């Protein structure tokens, strides 16, 4: 029996069978997150912190789909999000196109790039670590293109978005709910895929790619699909974030800003779990904020805290809490209902 | 059902199967026998689409399937059960069976039927496949293949890692399956007596070449086979 909470053996999580139970965690998480701004009294500072939390959580859902579901180590999340953002901003600034055109164009570009990287990995049979190296190189090339293509990208200083000033997009409260909606959308897509035939294929190929192929799973297609969808998710967040900030620069999408944070968030929350990205993002943001008064010491303490958390919750917080919960349930003795 | 012509398989520069011709008629059970390293696994893997570098022609029920990838062949009903079984170890027995029909959703009847053929699987259905014994894992592997109602079942060394008594049990199960499901089977095996008992016909493979072929009865009586593979004189 794969447990009341759907925790399968060996950490392979089978999604719950009934649709209500499958999407309930998303409903609960989004209600909680929707209430946060109210409890903070609408402070601009906390709202922008909240936006950053939602953005990193959305990135992490995308990474979870690519890495957690199909074991493709994409170390270019910042680059993919950035490609979409720059594409959208440049199209808007140069040709005066509206956001509802430029953002989808950016998303399309990211999806194309993500699918391309997956396809290279599949056709060249790159193992996890080699795909990591290739995508890391892609990130470096992307950053260098941004710095070098001054004419188009504004180089180090970046680009200011021409339109949008004074609109609701720039208001922290509206932006918070916009990014919450994006995050919820990503979570719904993640869960829907998990429960589909494609999701079964993901579980199979994660376990054993040859066995999956023998069982009729088109491994190459499944992986490329994950790459395309994950990159599109990254792109949608990146391009929307650029529109909200009114500004893009290479640091916004730098490897250290996006990829490292996302890796920490997902590892902490739990790779391959639905809410791992959200839990991880909340913990990282809160810890980060609590340590801010320490100034220079902050990074050191941050590192130590992360090491401790990793040692304690190696499977990620979602799984650890879940198994604690289940153990508590069994210790309560046989139920008589 | 299956026609193989001039199949060559090489690993790097070393060719291990040198132009294999082989035929399996619908409803027939054919054994590919030979010692360790004769090229049986390489030949079966090539037929199953797992050796992209192989050459030759393979046809399934008249349709050219040379060079198709493994998942495409599985979907066409050519299902390969490797010697190492390759179960989804972290998934339950039931989930392994369900995946056997991918991308179709298996109907309940089929699942019930497969479990009926291997009653042991019913007891184990919620257990992770990785925790089963060798014999049980073989049953799951074959059960997973049967979920698709295969047109041709390729069995690679089903006796691998099994105690003699279990080898007998597994082959007895295959014999029952042939009756019950009208299966077409190509089995590669070095446990020659078991394979010859199951099969209608057999090919003897040595150093990547067919050395001998005939009905199972003929080969059982052939002095060369008796000496080399049956331990008799």
Give an overview in words.
The complex is a heterodimer of chains A (337) and B (233). Chain A is an all-alpha fold. Chain A has 14 helices and 2 strands. Chain A has a domain at 26-254. The longest helix of chain A is centred in the N-terminal third of the chain and has 27 residues, at 44-70. Helix content of chain A is 72%, strand content 1%. A two-stranded antiparallel ribbon of chain A has the order 1-2. With 233 residues, chain B is α/β, with parallel strands linked by helices. Chain B has one domain: Rossmann fold. Helix content of chain B is 37%, strand content 26%. Chain B has 10 helices and 10 strands. A 6-stranded mixed β-sheet of chain B has the order 6-7-8-3-9-10, sandwiched between helices. In chain B, strands 2-1-4-5 form a 4-stranded antiparallel β-sheet, covered by helices on one side. Chain B is globular, with a radius of gyration of 17 Å. The chains are: A mainly alpha (337), B alpha/beta (233). At the A-B interface, α8 and α9 of A face α2, β6 and α3 of B.
């Amino acid at each position: 029996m794969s447990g009341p909470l759907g925790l399968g053996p060996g950490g392979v999580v089978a999604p719950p069978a009934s649709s209500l139970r499958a999407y309930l965690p998303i409903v609960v998480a989004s209600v909680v997150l929707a209430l946060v701004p109210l409890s903070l009294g609408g402070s601009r500072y906390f709202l922008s912190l909240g936006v950053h939390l939602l953005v990193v959580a959305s990135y992490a859902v995308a990474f979870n789909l690519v890495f957690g579901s199909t074991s493709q180590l994409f170390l270019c999340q910042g680059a993919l999000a950035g490609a979409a953002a720059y594409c959208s901003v440049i199209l808007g600034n140069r040709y005066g196109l509206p956001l509802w055109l430029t953002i989808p164009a950016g998303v399309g570009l990211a999806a194309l790039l993500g699918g391309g990287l997956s396809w290279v990995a599949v056709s060249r049979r790159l193992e996890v670590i080699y795909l990591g190296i290739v995508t890391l190189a892609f990130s470096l090339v992307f950053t260098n293109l941004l710095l070098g293509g001054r004419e188009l990208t504004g180089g180090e200083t970046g680009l200011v978005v021409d339109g949008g000033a004074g609109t609701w997009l720039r208001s922290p409260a509206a932006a918070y709910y916009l990014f919450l909606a994006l995050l919820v959308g990503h979570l719904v897509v993640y869960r829907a895929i998990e429960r589909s035939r494609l999701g079964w294929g993901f579980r199979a190929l994660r376990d054993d790619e040859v066995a999956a192929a023998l069982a009729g799973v088109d491994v190459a297609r499944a992986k490329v699909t994950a790459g395309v969808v994950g990159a599109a998710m990254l792109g949608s967040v990146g391009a929307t974030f650029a529109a909200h900030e009114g500004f893009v620069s290479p640091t916004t999408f730098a490897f250290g800003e996006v990829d490292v944070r996302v890796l920490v968030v997902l590892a902490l929350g739990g790779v391959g779990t639905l809410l791992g990205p959200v839990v991880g993002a909340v913990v990282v943001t809160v810890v980060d904020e609590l340590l801010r008064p320490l100034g220079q010491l902050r990074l050191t303490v941050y590192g130590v805290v992360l090491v401790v958390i990793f040692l304690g919750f190696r499977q990620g917080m979602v799984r650890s809490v879940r198994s604690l919960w289940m153990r508590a349930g069994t210790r309560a003795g046989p139920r008589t209902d | 059902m299956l026609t193989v012509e001039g199949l060559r398989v090489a690993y790097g520069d070393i060719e291990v199967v040198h132009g294999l011709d082989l035929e399996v008629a619908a409803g027939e059970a054919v054994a590919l026998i030979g010692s360790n390293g004769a090229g049986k696994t390489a030949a079966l893997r090539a037929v199953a689409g797992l050796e992209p570098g192989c050459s030759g022609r393979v046809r399934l029920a008249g349709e050219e399937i040379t060079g198709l990838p493994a998942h495409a062949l599985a979907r066409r009903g050519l299902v390969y059960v490797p010697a190492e079984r390759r179960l989804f170890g972290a998934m339950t027995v039931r989930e392994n069976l369900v995946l056997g029909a991918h991308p179709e959703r298996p109907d309940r009847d089929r699942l019930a039927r497969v479990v009926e053929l291997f009653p042991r699987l019913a007891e184990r259905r919620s257990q992770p496949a990785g925790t089963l014994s060798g014999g049980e894992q073989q049953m799951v592997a074959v059960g997973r293949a049967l979920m698709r109602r295969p047109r041709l079942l390729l069995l690679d060394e089903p006796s691998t890692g099994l105690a003699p008594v279990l080898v007998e049990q597994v082959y007895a199960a295959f014999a029952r399956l042939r009756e019950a499901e009208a299966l077409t089977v190509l089995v590669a095996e070095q446990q020659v007596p078991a394979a010859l008992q199951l099969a209608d016909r057999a090919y003897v493979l040595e150093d990547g070449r067919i050395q001998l072929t005939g009905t199972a009865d003929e080969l059982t009586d052939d002095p060369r086979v008796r000496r080399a593979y049956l331990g008799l004189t």
